[in-house]
Design goal:
The structure is a single chain. The chain is α/β, with parallel strands linked by helices. The chain has four domains: 200 residues, Rossmann fold (3-Layer(aba) Sandwich); 159 residues, Response regulator (Rossmann fold), CATH 3.40.50; 95 residues, Periplasmic binding protein-like II (D-Maltodextrin-Binding Protein, domain 2), CATH 3.40.190; 87 residues, no CATH class. It is 36% helix and 16% strand. The strands form seven sheets. An eight-stranded mixed sheet has the order 7-6-8-9-10-13-14-15. α10 packs across α11 and α16 packs antiparallel against α18. The longest helix is centred in the last third of the chain and has 24 residues. The protein is elongated and about 140 Å long.
């Protein structure tokens, strides 16, 4: 007998209400597809994406949802198939697409597709173009203009007046575009060398060694750094005097054990935060998944290298998944678009712009530091750690934040005794005899460009206080006057001191009440009635050959050669011309014996006597000889 179960009306009503409430409050899809594009070489980045999916699924489980990863392996050298791969991915309606994580023309193509269908597009690569992001795109990699500013500030803080830039790709020079703008006006010597793919690195390194410049900026691909350092060590370019600044954000992932004990200062920027909780979680998850793969019976299972040191792009992928998850949980109201066919005209996904707006408003402390975006879709308020090598590993010596470099106590341990001295920036103005341009046949740099009372005064002060100083002329050539009384804006040397562009102004500067209210003055020690000021003569020891000092050795050798040459010309021309042969006995008109006064002794005596301006009893007598001598002396 079959027993029919009948629902009581109240029970049926409550069941319908519960189902309706579940549909009302559970607005996220159960399965949330999310796409990513990788190359075959990007195994660690692909693993970071999968581990991030696994990690943040635990956050979405509270809402009854989970991520469904859509991974496409693409060929970076062939952009023709990229369109087809993206279209296949769009058929599964992803809420966002990550990648590509390399520079090629296909990235712009993907960005255009995502913009057309309003699919959020998230990148983590350094852009070599200066185009603004679209409304549907963000980039977690630091903008090239920001990196240029950071490297400019770091080089200024390291006080490198002479350095070499070694680069590989033509796009790499943008790292130093900010510094190149100011190198000319600051009289800094910057030399640029490009590594050629068909040329040995040693040839370039030997050329750099010949310049005797010990500060080197290495701006090359991460995979080539170890080989360049190896050949630099073989070329004698990794000594205690050499200092390297490497632009790669992934130098911490390389094994620098072979170069730690050379005492070469190797400095770079680091964006991955090792102390972040997610960093250790990512390592543990990677280790667990590798263990599971090793226990599989399938011998073809691929083991990913352990993520001991996480690459910056891998960390950015993890941060990207965190901000996407935060935005979805905050939004909690999306409907997936139906399958997208690139060959058909379809409407854009109206939830895409909403999701990207939520993502841009998210601000978190991720593995790569503070993750927030500006109105253009680029990272804002970034912090870069400044690290350098030690004999054991590496250590942080400072960090860059908001346009300023903050130094830790470790900073000064890696400086020489001279570099540890405080640098004082001096502003002044040209005015004889206080500050004058130094005269020299050679190109002068730094403080050697100027001479006078002010440079001599600063030299003596630096000896007493054990400091370094740098003299620069005031940009507008003015002493200092109020430009705007309301904003207390000054020009000239007073303005540079007030703005912090200079630490001190040293010049023949008149003290008045307005200037005293703006800056501090030392007590006046010199009046304006000075009439003569001259440099104290220095005594030098004289020697037997001091009379040769007016001319260099080369000039004396040329002068001696000229005397010998002219004397020999006198001798031979006097022998050739018939006018120099004279009758020794004028009374005998037809004497067959003739004499020539231009013998070797008289020729030398004539040349030396003419040089000493004393004259000579023997001299050329006739026009041909005199004419030739005049032409010879004129040419010489």
């Amino acid at each position: 007998m079959i027993e029919l179960i009948r629902f009581h009306p109240p029970l049926l009503f409550h069941l319908i209400v519960l189902i309706s409430l579940n549909e009302l409050f559970h607005c996220l899809p159960i399965s949330i597809p999310i796409g990513a594009l990788f190359t075959t070489e990007q195994l660690e980045e692909q693993q970071a994406f999968q581990l991030a999916i696994e990690h943040f699924n635990s956050h979405l489980e509270r809402n009854g949802s989970h991520y469904e990863p859509l991974i496409k392996i693409i060929d970076p050298q062939n952009n023709l198939f990229l369109y087809d791969d993206v279209c296949v991915m769009l058929q599964q309606t992803p809420v966002a697409i990550l990648g590509p994580f390399f520079n090629n023309f296909g990235a712009a193509q993907l960005q255009s597709i995502c913009e057309h269908y309003e699919i959020p597009h998230i990148e983590a690569r350094m852009l070599v173009d200066f185009k603004a992001r679209t409304d549907l795109s963000i980039n977690l990699y630091p903008h090239q203009s920001l990196l240029a500013k950071v490297f400019h500030d770091l080089i200024e803080s390291l006080d490198w007046n002479r350095f070499v830039i070694i680069y590989e790709d033509s796009e790499s020079v943008i790292h130093f575009s900010e510094y190149m703008k100011h190198s000319q006006e600051r009289q800094r010597e910057v030399r640029i060398f490009q590594l050629q793919p068909d040329q040995s690195y040693r040839e370039i390194l030997w050329q750099i060694k010949a310049t005797e410049i010990t500060n080197v900026v290495l701006d090359i691909n991460t995979e080539h750094i170890l080989e360049v350092l190896k050949q630099a060590q073989q070329s004698g370019m990794l000594s205690e005097q050499h200092k390297y600044l490497i632009t790669s954000l992934d130098l911490h992932t390389l094994d620098l054990e072979a170069y730690r004990h050379s005492r070469t200062n190797i400095t770079w920027l680091k964006i991955v935060q090792e102390q972040h909780p997610y960093t250790e979680n990512l390592r543990l998850l990677a280790k667990a998944r590798n263990y599971e793969r090793s226990m599989q019976s399938d011998s073809n299972a691929i083991l990913i290298p352990p993520m001991t040191n996480i690459k910056s792009v891998s960390a950015m992928i993890f941060d990207a998944m965190e901000i996407i998850t935060s935005a979805l949980i905050e939004l909690n109201d999306i409907k997936l678009l139906g399958s997208i066919d690139c060959n058909l005209e379809q409407k854009a996904w109206h939830h895409g712009s909403t999701i990207i707006n939520y993502i841009r408003q998210v601000a978190i402390e991720g593995i790569t530091g503070w993750v927030g975006f500006d109105e253009s879709g680029f990272r804002a308020n970034l912090t870069f750690d400044i690290v350098t090598t030690t004999e054991d590993s590496y250590e942080q010596i400072g960090y860059w934040k908001n346009g300023m470099i903050f130094r830790t106590n470790n900073w000064y341990r890696h400086l020489s005794s001279r570099e540890q001295m405080t640098l004082v920036k001096v502003t002044t103005v040209l005015n004889d005899p206080f500050v004058m341009n130094a005269r020299s046949s050679k190109e002068l740099r730094g403080n050697d460009r100027y001479e006078g009372f002010v440079p001599d005064l600063m030299k003596e002060i630096s000896k007493l206080l054990n400091i370094r100083f740098e003299i620069n002329l005031v940009k507008d050539g003015a002493y200092g006057a109020v430009m705007n009384a309301t904003s207390n804006d000054w020009n000239g040397m007073i303005g540079e001191v007030m703005r912090g562009e200079a630490d001190i102004a040293v010049a023949d500067l008149t003290i008045n009440s307005n200037r005293e209210q703006a800056v501090d003055f030392t007590y006046p020690f010199m009046s304006t009635g000075i009439s003569i000021i001259y440099k104290k003569p220095t005594t030098k020891e004289t020697s037997l050959w001091s009379f040769l000092s007016p001319f260099s050795t080369a000039v004396w050798i040329c002068l001696l050669g000229a005397i010998v040459g002219i004397s020999l010309i006198f001798f031979y021309v006097g022998r050739f011309t018939p006018y120099e042969w004279c009758n020794p006995h004028p009374c005998i008109h037809h004497d067959p014996v003739l004499e020539n006064a231009c013998n070797m002794r008289n020729s030398f005596w004539c040349s030396i006597g003419s040089l000493m301006q004393q004259g000579s009893d023997v001299a050329p007598k006739f026009v041909p000889t005199l004419k030739f001598d005049f032409a010879l002396v004129f040419v010489i």
